[in-house]
Amino acid sequence: MKKAYLLLTVLSFVLLTSCSNIQGEVPSSGSATEQEAPVENEDITLPEETVSNNDNKNNEDEVIIDPVSQIDLSLNPNELGEIMILMYHGIGDTESDWQRTPENFRKDLEYMYQNKYQMISLNDYAKGEIKTKAGYTPIILTFDDGRQNNFNYIEENGQLVIDPDCAVGILEEFKNKYSDFDVTASFFLGTNPFGQKEYVNDKMNFLVDNGYDIGNHTYSHEKLEMLGSDDIQAEIGSVNNIINSYVPDYNIETLALPHGSNPKDEYLDYMLEGSYEGREYKNIAVLDVGWRPAYSPFDTMNNFKSLYRVTASEIKVDNCGMYDYFKQFEAGSREKFISDGNSNVVTIPKKHEEYLNKEITGEKIINVY
Ligand SMILES: [Zn+2]
Description:
Residues 25-60 are annotated as: Disordered. One of its GO terms (biological process) is carbohydrate metabolic process. Residues 138-265 form the NodB homology domain. It is built from 9 helices and 16 strands. By secondary structure, the protein is α/β, with parallel strands linked by helices. It has 2 domains: 2-70, no CATH class; 75-361, TIM Barrel, CATH 3.20.20.370. α2 (102-114) runs parallel beside α4. Residues 1-57 have low confidence and may be disordered. Bound molecules: zinc ion. Zinc ion binds at residues 144-145, 217, 221, 258.
């Protein structure tokens, strides 16, 4: 690999210094192999930008990377495996179905780090843009209801600081503890996000500036099945408008259904698109309440309008808490998503090929093995 990088660097230098008209056409990243498209495997197609430009005579020495040749199959990549979308609510002193203690939340994060899980954003999942490194499994953390113990400011020595035992405080702690841990989470908010009205602006901007996502959990947390089209649009649109009053450029595009309640069939589209007070909203992913890992975004079985979540708890008696699924993944009785390390390549075992949703993979290179 290092030799190949070196080769590319040297070739790039020669090209740049000898041909003044090829600026911007030198491959920008990765290692190099000879100029050959990978033609042996019928499943592989190259997007236009990686195909060599044979019309340009000056590019004779240009080297093309075959991203598929870079995939390490010994890591057993499986990008049709399942991904857990964890459903947290509160972080507080007592453990319950809807609350995790700070100690247990730290235990969860430590488990993820030690067992090669990497947090990704729900938005990236919904777009099929999974940038998890090779051999690692993406995992998504969601927090519903915008409780103050998700993001709490406290005063310490006259200074305002993030409560070290609130969700954001603990996530930031792990970000600092492990520099190679991708720390993020999605917070689903309604009115009065995180309490402490005087700090809402600071909190919203902190989340957006530090790589967290904000989603919609509706204005009054009512079951959407009880509502008509105008009320559904008001429930969703008003929350977006509130959040955007603090972070105007942030695009809210995910919705967690209160009580997991879908609108009636005839109003289902308003869950995804609508408008309120002259502003439109559009959701690309809608979260249910439970009770199993989600499919890969590339799986034909997946439904972005009704994504499964796993309760982030250990006290469920019906074997559907997060550690039950961790155990099943480790035992191999369920297949987890294992990344190939390249978000432009979708690597899948041959036996799952029939489940590949090519509408979602789009221009990505498909690598079946
Ligand atoms: Zn809720």
